[in-house]
Amino acid sequence: xxxxxxxxxxxxxxxxxxxxxxxxxxxxWLTGAKLQQQLTLPxxxxxxxxxxxKSLYALGEAQKVAVLLDRRIDPDQKLDLSIENDSLEIAxxxxxxxxxxxxxxxxxxxxxxxxxxxxxxRTLSALRKEEINxxxxxxxxxLARQAxxxxxxxxxxxxxxxxxxxxxxxxxxxxxxxPHDLWAGARLPALGWTDRATLVAVQFDLTFSFDSSGxxxxxxxxxxxxxxxxxxxxxxxxxxVKKFSAAFPNSQLRVAGGKLHIRxxxxxxxxxxxxxxxxxxxxxSVTPGKQVYTLQVNQxxxxxxxxxxxxxxxxxVQLDEAAIRAAGHTLETPVSLDVKNxxxxxxxxxxxxxxxxxxxxxxxxxxxxxxx
Length: 372
Hints:
This protein has twelve helices and 19 strands. The chain has 372 residues and is an alpha/beta fold. The longest helix is centred in the middle third of the chain and has 19 residues.
């Protein structure tokens, strides 16, 4: 369960890396079956005021799972959370939920970014792979080749895409759609050409397509709806189609010619294909856990304390000073607190009661007046 420790003026930010912190350049990233096994193993995470990118990358290095944080996400935002013995996959999802991010496992890379982008990432990847499979063999070979993807601090996305196009001999028609930007360095394991290009393009809400020869690439905005269409042999599993339809509301399923035709995200395709093959398929999701707070304050004016708590809790604080004075109280009353693992309501009550104040919450508005 997450914990927050607040002082009067600022949150206490504590984050420690392992003493012998591993450099990403030295990590041998897990891939394939070993990666899938690692994602199922129990993991524990305890962060207090942890800077997102530094913490995520340290976790990835410790687990030997490559992590990439989208350029649009504040790398220094602070997270408080405690995860005990959940699988690494669930831990990643809980971290994303706490930070209001999306998470997608694109092959060997754990991607964290805007939820809408993360939800489309694997489907975009699958569509691009299907596209190159239809290209002439001379074009398909270089685009299917796997290679590590690495860049240093202050690299620009245009340079990264230019590096990829030089490798494959492809011309980009509208490279100007990629604005100038400076990126933090990254070290990613071997990925196909289209996945490497996708990880650059999606960070600007872009995808791409090839001409019929496979020698020219055109950047384009990611469509609002991105779906993958495939067909699967039903065999003796026709009775499960209704169950699939209920379990996967984001996909369209129909039966024709003895086959199950599916239009939906790549994740749904994977799970349904596993189920049709008789394998156990689990669809997991997480929501942020209940937040609890720890606070130590020594003789702080209650008005300033409540204003600071309002900022930390993201409440609009409205102090009824006139009514408080009329009741013979003051916002300068000193308050001392020592509470641990309490809810937001309990925290506010502990702050108000010593000063004979009371509060009400109306959505995100915190109203404070005299205690009746």
